[in-house]
Specification:
CATH class of the largest domain: Alpha Beta
CATH architecture of the largest domain: 3-Layer(aba) Sandwich
Number of domains: 2
Strand order of the largest sheet: 6-5-4-7-8-9-10
Helix content: 25-40%
Number of strands: 15
Shape: globular
Strand content: 15-25%
Distance between the termini: 28 Å
Number of helices: 10
Radius of gyration: 21 Å
CATH topology of the largest domain: Rossmann fold
Length: 376
Amino acid sequence: MKYRRKLFRHRDPYDLKGTEELFLKAVRENCAYVYKRCPGYKAILDDAGFSPERLRSMEDLAELPFLPTALFKRRRLFALPRRRLPLVVTSSGTSSGKASEIGFSVGDLWAGLLMVLHICKLRHLISPRPCHYVVFGYQPRLGNRTGVSKTAFGVTLFTPALSRTYALRWKNGDYLLDLEAVQNAIVKHSRSRFPLRFMGFPAYAWFLMKRMEEQGVRVRLPKGSKLMLGGGWKQFYAEEVDKSAFYALAKKVLGLDDRDIIEFFGAVEHPIFYNDCERHHFHIPVYSRVLIRDPATLKPVPNGTPGLVNLITPMDVGTPLLSVMTDDLGILHDAGECGCGLDAPWLEILGRVGLQDIKTCAAGAAEILNKVEVSL
């Protein structure tokens, strides 16, 4: 995977124009590797009449068969034996209880580490100064393999962690939300000389800040404190609030300006680290490319047009995540529409949709995999 190594070592994480040829070579390399080692992925590409050799230009990325995220919740796809996958994580699951299971090889994890280091350097997130942490997410435990819990814990390694307080605590065989303990920790750490960093689901952060507002609790956190958000609103989508209201409440009860609020975007099925810029836009890093597709035809649409979000990356070979179709609705904006100085287009997520096209595509791919399993 020499082209992947070169891509993830590239010093400028937003130099898309300068990495087009390298990105294409890395995608073709990944496709050929997984095609030979994953019967299920090979069956899907063969059924579509597609081979890795067809990836000759950046335009060919649109022809690469995509796998809906729903497919990973129905079938386990691995290109390597489980013994060669040091990390296997799951998604948070759906209302039906189904969750994706994604494997990472040593090379996948190394590429991911380089990616995080390059991007975090631009946002000054890595520091030798110790911090206290409040995690709006799951308390780690041996049986919890969700990607979101591992990501949240990983973020607490950006600095030396003096303490970690979790909003979701494991009690009596289940995770329970304990906002009182979180609020007590915030008040306590507001008197510390070390910064306090938050990480996790924005919904729980919002519920905590509303609780503080209602109780008349106000704090001014130490300099260098940051509110880092990721994972989306999940089942609390009905309670999702506008960013301006969220930032205003953070200023009111925590004393944090919007420059101290940092958002992340990603998915277990697409483990790329999207970190917002100073204007809170998710610019596309060199490690991925994004296509927006028409919900009716699934054909790519021009920048500025809303549609389904198709994410492409050559990072992972443990599981075939080369091209993944999400159930997110989004818009890809030109770089110049931001004004932050990063020369890369940026992705705006409009919301989540449940389209029959995506369900049908996942079901069709699953049928192909059934035939493969019978023939093995």
